[in-house]
Amino acid sequence: MSVGGGGDGERRSKENGRALRMASQQQERLEINCSYLRLRSMALLASFASLTLTPRRAPSPGKKSLPVG
User: Could you tell me which residues belong to the region Disordered (predicted)?
Assistant: First the structure.
């Protein structure tokens, strides 16, 4: 402990403030990443759903099917 000054407490206060800012920035980055991943997964889900839910086209009447055998 230091005697006769508040230097130690000041230093600790500055370190705490810095750590708090870093944690806040990290939380903000994580929230942005989560939002991006949520949007990305929804987009992938939508594209997959559109692939699987579109009805298959029946061959047009003018096309002849290939002979089998």
Answer: 1-25
